[in-house]
Amino acid sequence: MKEFLKTKGFKMTPQRELIFRSFFEMGEHVSVDELYDRVRREDNSVGYATVWRNLKLICRVGLAEEVNIGDGITRYDRVTKVPHGHLFCTECKSVIEFNVEQLVGVLAQKAGERGFTPDSFKIEVQGVCEGCRALKASGSNGHSEETGLP
Amino acid sequence: MKEFLKTKGFKMTPQRELIFRSFFEMGEHVSVDELYDRVRREDNSVGYATVWRNLKLICRVGLAEEVNIGDGITRYDRVTKVPHGHLFCTECKSVIEFNVEQLVGVLAQKAGERGFTPDSFKIEVQGVCEGCRALKASGSNGHSEETGLP
DNA sequence: ATGGATGCAAAGCCTTTGCAAGCTT
DNA sequence: AAGCTTGCAAAGGCTTTGCATCCAT
Q1: Which residues of A70-80 are buried (b: 16+ CB within 10 A; e: fewer)?
Q2: Could you check whether A1-79 and A80-150 share the same CATH topology?
Q3: Residue ranges of domains in chain A
Q4: Tell me: the pLDDT tens digits for A61-118?
Q5: pLDDT score at B102
């Protein structure tokens, strides 16, 4: 890893190593805050900006990419060999991943038909997970959804 | 429309009518600022917050939904009967829509297999559009990509 | 008259950046 | 030594909210 960065003109530092290691040890969809907390547990002298900048760096060198699930918080996904999509539960905010290799193939073709050269794909589904649906069916009453504005 | 809103407990006002009309007259992927500018051209007394709140209202009543393309700006897409995905050109920022009815079917099935009840789908592809690819091929030199951090 | 709607201005929040000091190479 | 990194704090940029006032019902 150190060598990998060196070839790109970056240096390795204790903080950077800690941040990189922490990021890759954590699951997917990591936010800056989450990574910051995690890093802090091992070294509480690391600054927020450093974590942020290194997360960006991880993206720049192609090891991760940003994910937006629409809650205003940027999350980072490790880039894996297997393309995957996300199922976001709007109730408990959990995320389920699923393989989208075939879909990506179809997408690439559709894009190509329009002269578009695809680079990355984002496939996300919002809905309710199994557990939450069960809860809603039993615990909650059946009145209509909220419509109000603040 | 007025009746539609009334049934949901909302009132119709001149501003609201103007904002709704403007939104539906504009294309897809409208941002608050864009809508605000558009509305202002017809009535420069309308406040930003009003536009913002009404855009949110349009979403609440199910006529539009937020779209995040990762540039930090929330855009709003009119909800149409035909599900569509987006091809975002990272060069010229243009957006091309494409039909994803079949894909949505596959997605719904995949989600169902995991006990997930899908609600909405987001299918986005980032890449380079035809025009920009042509430009890059001719105009630009071939040196390697940027890797630098600010 | 009543409760939602509006406008303005001010918070909020997360993301970025400026700088001086500290470390790799 | 030279330049990338780091930390802190401050600045940005877009999204939300507080409030007093106004207006549709």
Answers
A1: eeeebbbbeee
A2: no
A3: 1-79, 80-150
A4: 999 988 887 788 899 988 876 788 888 887 777 788 888 888 898 889 989 999 999 9
A5: 86
**Residues 61-100, chain B, CB closer than 7 Å to nucleic strand D:** 72-74
CATH class of residue range A1-79:
mainly alpha
- State the nearest Cα–Cα gap between A64 and chain B, in angstroms: 14
CB-based contacts of A15-20 (< 8 A; 24+ apart in sequence) = A15/A43, A15/A46, A15/A50, A15/A54, A16/A54, A16/A57, A18/A42, A18/A43, A18/A46, A19/A46, A19/A50, A19/A51, A19/A54, A19/A55, A20/A54, A20/A58
Place of tokens 């202002």: B40
- In the three-class reduction of DSSP (H, G, I as helix; E, B as strand; rest coil), residue B84 is classed as strand
- Is the model's pTM score more than 0.90? no
Q: Does A8 touch chain B (CB under 8 A)?
A: yes
Strands annotated E in chain A: 30-31, 64-68, 74-78, 84-89, 95-99, 117-128
Positions in chain B whose pLDDT score sits under 50: 140-150
Chain A 56-75 residues in 7 Å CB range of strand C: 56, 72-74
Assigned superfamily of B80-150: Ferric-uptake regulator, C-terminal dimerisarion domain (3.30.1490.190)
